[in-house]
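Hey, I'm writing a tutorial for new members on how sequence and structure tokens pair up, and I'd like a real worked example in the thread rather than a made-up one. If someone can provide the structure for the chain below, I'll link this post from the tutorial.
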Amino acid sequence: MLALGLVLNTLGIGLFCWAIFALAVYALPFFVAISVGMLAFRDGAGVFGALLIGIASGALTLAAGQVIVAVSRSLTLRVAIATAFAIPAAIAGYHVVFALSQIGVPSLAWREAFACGGAVCIGCTAWARLTVFVETRPLESGGLVENIPQPVLTAATHER
């Protein structure tokens, strides 16, 4: 029974960690959805109206962020949008890893170290998941050297 409990606990924590990494990019849209939904509820939209407005605003935030990052030619704009999505994910990752580390790590310094490492990993995951749709532009060769064919000069072009 003890072995089964250890296996199930390990699987549960692994599933929870997978969910954190899979849902990292949704931290900013979730925050926007909750904030707008609460604002709509406070202003008298009712429970159903606030729920619909919150879901719509969160979905719009996620879609707009992904489209802007994928379509924009400005590197500065893409970095700003990706950073806006990665920072809330890193903050959420810090708090989740800190809470999970309280289960088996007695030292506060090690819990902080694990939490900071988790924040970096989860923030980078959100950054990577958001920029997955970005294609390299012709001016950005992605570090590859392209062999552009040079025009061949023939004797006919140099007639005197």
